């Protein structure tokens, strides 16, 4: 039976393993991985008052995760929730989304922004599923590599 729960620092090895698999399947796979930064990012969100990570777990193994933060907008103090990473290998994706959305509501967010920047999901299917969940399109994002 799959359980959806809030992640703790004890989940760090499983979170990192899932994130690495998501990274490998994403359109960002050519970017290098800095393990210390991955770990610090998860711990920062887990321990932040303005962040949360939820996991799906079955038989002691993590099979999915969703991470997010809330922050005030540029023009007022109304909170917006942002999904940072969403990946599930076990079909728990929508349950994870519901967990983060519930947390965002409890944090008094007035908007919840979800994306597919990783480019893993089929865009047409993702848009259809999100529309059925009450989400609307919020614009278009573009990316350009920068010289470093």
Write the layout of secondary structure elements.
Layout lengths: L2 E4 L5 H14 L9 H13 L3 E8 L2 E12 L6 E10 L4 H14 L2 E5 L9 H10 L16
Parallel strand pairs: 4-5
Antiparallel strand pairs: 1-2, 2-3, 3-4
Helix pairs in contact: 1-2
Number of strands: 5
Beta fraction:
25-35%
Question: What portion of residues is helical?
Answer: 25-40%
Class inferred from helices and paired strands: alpha+beta
Shape: globular
* Mean model confidence by pLDDT: 94
User: Which ranges are low-confidence, i.e. pLDDT below 50, for 5 or more consecutive residues?
Assistant: none
Q: Main sheet?
A: 5 strands, mixed
Instruction: Return the string of H and E elements.
Output: EHHEEEHEH
Gap between N and C termini: 46 Å
In DSSP terms (H or I, runs of 4 or more residues), the helix count works out at: 4
Q: What integer value in Å does the Rg equal?
A: 15 Å
Enumerate the strands of the largest sheet in spatial order, edge to edge or round the barrel: 1-2-3-4-5
